[in-house]
Fold this sequence. Notes:
The complex is a heterodimer.
Chain A: E1 2-9, E2 16-23, E3 27-32, E4 37-42, E5 47-48, E6 58-61, E7 69-72, H1 75-84, H2 93-97, H3 99-131, H4 134-155, E8 162-163, H5 166-180, E9 186-190, E10 197-200, E11 204-208, H6 209-214, H7 218-233, H8 236-255, H9 261-294, H10 302-312, H11 328-338, H12 349-362
Parallel strand pairs in A: 9-11
Antiparallel strand pairs in A: 1-2, 1-7, 2-3, 3-4, 5-6, 6-7, 8-9, 10-11
Helix pairs in contact in A: 3-8, 5-7, 5-12, 7-9, 7-10, 8-9, 9-11, 10-11
Chain B: E1 2-3, E2 5-7, H1 11-27, H2 33-47, E3 48-50, E4 53-57, H3 61-92, H4 97-125, E5 127-129, E6 132-136, H5 140-156, H6 162-175, E7 177-179, E8 182-186, H7 190-218, H8 220-230, H9 237-270, E9 272-274, E10 277-281, H10 285-316, H11 318-355, E11 356-358, H12 380-385
Antiparallel strand pairs in B: 1-11, 2-3, 3-4, 4-5, 5-6, 6-7, 7-8, 8-9, 9-10, 10-11
Amino acid sequence: MAYFTGEYFDGKSSRSEDADVQLTSQSLLLRSTNNSPIGEWELDRLRDEYSPPVEGAILLSLAADNSARLKITDPDALFELRTRCPKLTQKRKAEKREWPKLVAAAAGTLVVVAGLVYYGMPVIAGAVAEIIPETTRQNLGQAVEERILMQVTKSNKNKNAVCSSVTADLALSRVISQFSNGEPASVLVVKSKIANAFALPGGRIIIFSGLIDKAADANALVGVLAHEFAHVEARHPTSLLVANLGMAAVLSIVLGDVTGGTLIAGAGQMALGASYSRDFERAADQRAIEFMRQNNYDVGPLIPLLKKIQKSVPEKNVLSFMVSHPDIDSRVETLKAAGVTGTQQAFTEREWQEIKVMCTKSV
Amino acid sequence: MQSFLTCDITRSKVLSRILLNKVFGLLTLGFYRFWGKTHLRRLIWQAVGINGDRLTYHGTAKELFVGFLLALLVMTVLLGLVGGALKFATISAPELIGIEQLLNIVFLAAFWQFARYRLWRYRLSRTSYRTVRFFQKGSALAYTGKVMLWGIISVITLGWAYPKMRAVQADYQLNNMAFGNQTFEYRGETRAFYSIYWPFILFLNVMFWGGNILNFATDIFTDIAAVGATVKIDSPDAVRYFIGFLILMFAVAGILYVSAKVKEFNYKVGQTKFLNAHFAANIPVLNVLKIGSLMGIINILFLVLIFVLAYVGFVGGVEAIQVYLVIGFIAYFLLVDAIKYLFLFIPMLKLACRSIAIDNVDVFGEVAASTHEAPSYGEGIADALDVGAF
Lengths: 363, 390
């Protein structure tokens, strides 16, 4: 049994009164200085409201819904209380019980937001891409094209990157116009060892000359053009851009910008963006097969070209979910399933020779 | 008048808490931040005492987390709708593109002000002194409306309405601040804000108009841009002087701005009353500038260190650069907040505690608790927009 004094707050005002405190084996008995009882506080319900604890004082509370406090500064009393109140610095149970609700709310919110991002965003992005006016798409495409050209020029040791030859340019435009039915589209061949091709917003298609070098048959290049034009027709590049911007916005909200969230948001966005674009690639392959069939060109020569590209690219990437093109094997399967789609060559022998050398000639 | 605030914050505890928050934040993809913030705030609130009694922070990580989830829903929908509507408007009329961007900025700025008011409301309602809570009454929407109105006028008038905006902000915020069932009273005048801010605004205007007139008369900026873009400069002295001049002007603008902010703070405190007690603040501008400069120098040293690491890596080869840069980045990531707290926030808090006085401290011991409704969750929008990040 020990006696000491403390400062008691009833929780109804900031006024305090001195209290006489008696420490028994089970509880604290509180009395005001005129000896009227204030209450009995059980030791194992007591908590120190100073968190983290401070030296020289304890601010005792009895229950979460009771704002009365007892402030103790007597050093002997502090020692007694710290040794005899087992749960002084623990959390109250009520706070712990709310966990399941909290987890459910978080999961629910994340599911709704993820649903909006994953299913809503492509729909919105597609719709936005459809109604973005031609001029805006042209400007966007031009800006991206300029950046690509700048990079290629740099890696070519500042030599002009654009390959040009009258015969080759005319031949490429002619083939594209066969697919496009009047829709504006342009093809640009740039000098680079990389075997790649892109479609940009505003109907711009860029072919890296490495791809032409690897193409053994003219119709392999035509297959690539058909594939890229399928992207242009479906406005895939613009959709992807819009979807990426939207996802960046949502993810940066989810992760918060303070703790390196931007980096993680970037990676997440890449993963999601890649999964959209994998769908786009499949769709473009299907549409390319249709284009080739309509014009009586065989899509078959595209198969060896794809296999060659596969050889030059390292085997299955660890982060394969981030790689935007579907597995080359599954693409080859799709193309094989299409069978022979035509009998004609899209380019004359002379045109094909001209295309093959357009980069060595002009640069 | 007597000073009545104390601040006995332990720097080592703050430092270890910040580092812990960073590490856990990284491990949990940022989701630990609600818990981390709560721990840090308890530490800071509790370090501040009024007349010997410590403040208590009552907020919980759960409230921040729920607030965040709600804000996430609201913002996904709202940003989607507003963004979509604006996009659609510009698509149907492409000549509106500039206006769309402007509206986007205005929308975000309004959201930011709204979030700030809600942040005060939450933090004050989770702060108690001698068991009685503080409150921020008023409507965040009304506050946002007032600030946006005067903010837009400020932009149009090249800053000359800014003091009025600050006066309106102070008036609304402080007159809606309460402790228990008693409200603070603030009687500031717009005129005083003009006398505080005119040097800063005048300086900006002189720079703006001076630069424009100079450019109009001599085309100097167009020439500089052209030179920068095309020609390698033979005598870089002119460029050096120009950059030096710009740095000097930024420094002058910074000093004028900081001293105006300090004076504004002192003025606002001096015009505030609680029951029959008057306050006074006398934060010396020079001390604030000293703290700010020290913080700036430490940051610069830190960046130089990263630069040196990168350079050492450069000498050692490409892979070494990557390793050193990663080390530098992680160190920066871990330490940047710690530097901010240890060299800016804590010294400022201590300075403020020393410099604020009251003529009757007993008023705080005589206040009944209020039944004013406190918000049940907090700060979600502020968190999402990264407003007031602590």
